[in-house]
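Not sure how to ask, but would you mind making up any protein sequence you like and the tokens describing how it folds?
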Amino acid sequence: MYEILMDGKTLWYPGDRECVILSPTLTEALNDSGYIEFKVPPGNPLYNQIFECVSMIQVLKDNKEIFYGVVKETSVNFRQEKRVYAVGILSFLADSIQPQKKFQNITPYNFITELIENHNAQVEERKRFEVGVVTVHDPNDSLYRYTNYEDTLTALREKICDGLEGYLRVRRIGSRNILDVVTLKDYGKNCGQAIEFGENLLDYTESTTTDEIATAVLPRGHQLDESPIEGLTVYLTIESVNGGKDYIYNDAAVKRFGWIKKVVDFQDVTLPENLIKKAQEWLTDKQFANMTLSLNAVDLSLLDKDIQSFELGDYIHARAEPYGMDAWFPVQEKTTCLSDFSRNTIVLSNTTQKSYTRQQAVTEKNITQKIPHKSDMLQAAKDNASKLIKIATNGYIVLKMDDEGNPCELLIMDSKDINEARKVWRWNLNGFGYSSTGYDGEYGLAITMDGAIVADFITVGTMRADRIKGGTLKLGGEENVAGVGQVCDENGNVLITLDKRGITLAPSVTISWENISGTDDIPTKTQVTEIAEDTIKTTNVVAENLQVKTANILGELSADKITSGTLQGVTIISEKDGCTIKLVNGEVLGYYQKTKVGSLDFAGSTRLSEGNVRRAMRLRAEQLMSIKTPMLFVAENPSSDADVTKCTSTDVTVLTGVAGDSYTTKTLRFINGLCVTG
């Protein structure tokens, strides 16, 4: 039986002569505040006590609250009946504004908590919420979001519900408002009995025809590397596990409607046995995922079902043998006429409805921001797990027996029937696990007897392990805290630290090249023989820009350009066709076929100038010398800016030897710059 209270007082009670209202209709929808509409005749004792944005309406079913909301609109018709429109308390979240802020590396639970804290700081006590159960997850459990002056309800819808497929569920404990943000499969319960449809299935659907329903499916898996037909892409098929056929079909549907084939891609499937399972699931369930079924109380009575047993968010098992349908649909919408059950309706659909009840934000105040501390990450996970377990009010404990009648397995399910159950905890000798797809479904959370733990998310305070294997080890980035990695010895002394500053090594740590593969920038162990303090001994160095104070090179030095103050030792300047020019201890030597043929150096004794002997550059040839030039110019003054004179026919006296204070000379005759005597 239904009853309506206003501010704790009876507004409507069936059969009462004074507490009378007309046509009370409650409309509920997933992710919507829901609303109730009714008319209050003048004779109702509370007629003059109904105030917009103040009066609170409560709907009870068998003394259990199913709706709680605030009066938003009232109007009076010509019969003086007062029309009342009240929306659910989820609409309170539209009365606060979120500030401009960037959120990075924050979990969904902590993000939602901060939005609610901001909301609570702006509204009165009755509009405040507590964060309850949160089961939505980001793949990395790390959100990147902005808020920008939107109301809190819009922020939750756009940044959590739309992005993470979450659903807002409001419940009350005493006078406390609790907000759960859950996935659709966690919203309601699984109804035990299936609804059986016949050929009239499409009479209950919206915009669905037989042309949209396939009776056979050709599944394609991941793309293969090689194709037998050049120019065409080939995919994994089910021929190897399906008797040579690349398709499956529903026999009953084919007999009734004929062959209607469709190609469906499952690009992440790499095994044919998994691909055929996906195809079977699609043919009987997934292809109907976008179907919407609208049913009224009369429809359900003809289908031998009581519409009042279905609640918002409950999963309904629907079967239609002629179409090969064996699918589950959640109750997406529910309309309850409290005084005339025959007018009740429900909408079954896996497609999220985007319509929302009329809600307007009317309040904006200063916001107190609160950022969670580092330790909140673990505590938040504990709190969420505690809430998730404590609110469990449904479920059945079933002992499964073996062939001899002995209990062999403990099951905790959302239905007494194993075949109907969707949410299943299964515990036997081999381990225990949880499946959201039925007893024979996939167990995404499990601990098995071989020591393996399978889970999508693990939150711990301290974890000890002999080894951790995985694709990516992420340190830091959560709650604005930088990550730190440490390697310690057996006594706990830190040897290596990896943090945002780089890698820090303890004095006792050495670097080994055992497992380094050489690249253009990194030498291998065979190339690097020793590293000690600031000295590197190596057989090969390759670098675009090498700067050293001192280099002892025993082998060869190859470089496009050498910039240096002093080069000592032996340096090959040029080597071609057997001719070599070397720089040896300050002297330029010329070789042909490894035989010295000339040199350029400083002479031990030089030309005579004003009676003095000076050192000068000397060019010598062991055998022959060839000088090719159109003209030869000389200067007597060694200054860089001295005038030069073209050599003509003249005699030149040159110094040929020195003995103590005496010296010998020789006269050379030049004709047109060429020496003709010697």
In short: The chain has six domains: 2-91, 96-185, 195-223+234-349, 396-461, 570-601, 602-675. The helical segments are 108-120, 152-164, 251-257, 272-284, 297-302, 376-390. The chain has a mean pLDDT of 78.
